[in-house]
Amino acid sequence: MIFAYPDASALVKRYYAEVGSPAVDHLFLRVPLDRMFVLSVGYTEVASVLTRKRNAGRLPPPVYQLAVRRLPAEIGPASPVTLVVVDGVLADAAIRHVDTHSVNSTDAALLQSALDIAALRTAGNDILMVASDLRLLRAAQAEGLATYDPET
């Protein structure tokens, strides 16, 4: 059984049409929401990206309104998606990835939380890191995680 862990670079494709959007839509059709993990900061980042696109005139207001209604309904706290919160323990464990893989703080937390969750693999399950951020994908691969870039 596959558990998906999309980062913000992948999630935004669900709410804004760009390269990789069809692949992310397909992922959402194939992986039930209760088998998805999303970093809570990434959830907020998607809203931020959508707002920036609207403010830049690349996302018409009606499409923006639909996207910001869909986002919390689909992956917000009331949805079956598991929102992973960055607490002190996770942040402390994630710091090593900043240096080891030269990733930013959010990606380090996402990577560490995926590694923590990867214990599910012992029961025949696997975690699939979904991202369009090549540095994060390389770091996840180096740590032994399965990865998927919806842009390729």
Account of the protein in words:
The two termini are 23 Å apart. The chain has a single domain (2-148), classed as Rossmann fold, CATH 3.40.50.1010. Helix 1 (8-15) packs across helix 2 (21-30). It has helices spanning 8-15, 21-30, 40-55, 61-75, 88-101, 105-117, 134-142, and strands at residues 2-6, 37-39, 82-84, 126-130, 146-148. The chain is built from 7 helices and 5 strands. With 152 residues, it is an alpha/beta fold. The strands form 2 sheets. Strands 1-4-5 form a 3-stranded parallel β-sheet. It has a two-stranded parallel ribbon with strand order 2-3.
Question: Any chance you could write out the topology, listing elements then pairs?
Answer:
Layout: E1 2-6, H1 8-15, H2 21-30, E2 37-39, H3 40-55, H4 61-75, E3 82-84, H5 88-101, H6 105-117, E4 126-130, H7 134-142, E5 146-148
Parallel strand pairs: 1-4, 2-3, 4-5
Class of secondary structure makeup:
alpha/beta
Please name the CATH architecture.
3-Layer(aba) Sandwich
Whole-number total of structural domains: 1
- The CATH topology annotation reads as Rossmann fold
User: Uncertain regions: pLDDT < 50 for 5+ in a row?
Assistant: none
C-alpha geometry: globular
Using only C-alpha atoms, the radius of gyration works out to 15 Å
Q: What is the straight-line distance between the termini?
A: 23 Å
User: What is the succession of H and E elements?
Assistant: EHHEHHEHHEHE
List how many beta strands DSSP finds.
5
The averaged pLDDT comes out at 94
Q: Major β-sheet, in short?
A: 3 strands, parallel
CATH class: Alpha Beta
CATH-defined superfamily: 5'-nuclease
Helix content: 55-70%
Number of helices: 7
